[in-house]
Amino acid sequence: MRTSFTVNDMTIHRIVEQEAGFTPILEFLPSLSRDLLDENRSWMEPAALDSAGMAVLCFQSYVVKTPHHTILVDACIGNDKSFPHRPAWHRKSDSNWMQALKRPALPSTTSTLSCARICT
Fold it and tell me: Looking at residue 63, which CATH number applies to its domain?
């Protein structure tokens, strides 16, 4: 997937915080049969299904730049939060998101911040 695209005078940058196998696909989609999964595995791998049978999910933010505004839409996973049932997020302390945020040359001020809180 592209990291940015332009629509008229607006540019949207994708800021990936985490993209990986997240949960077993057969648990994530409980009505999915193993036979149907096997029939569709060829087009699902590796973008939607990893080799271990985990659903690949992407948690990301977006930087939207217009001629007059810079808007950050954030998934708000963040570091140092308590998610004991999600080991990959629990007390996370990496710099992945901050490093990715530097790529679209975000100005020192942002017009709007929208937080899309994930409730798990």
Answer: 3.60.15.10
Q: Which structural domain range is residue 53 located in? A: 4-115
Q: 113: which strand partners?
A: 72
As averages over each run of 10 residues, the pLDDT of the chain (120 residues) reads 85 88 93 96 95 92 89 81 82 81 67 60
CA separation, residue 47 to residues 9, 85, 119 (Å): 30, 24, 24
Instruction: Give Rg (Cα) of the chain.
Output: 17
3-state secondary structure of 25: helix
pTM: 0.69
SS3 label, residue 35? helix
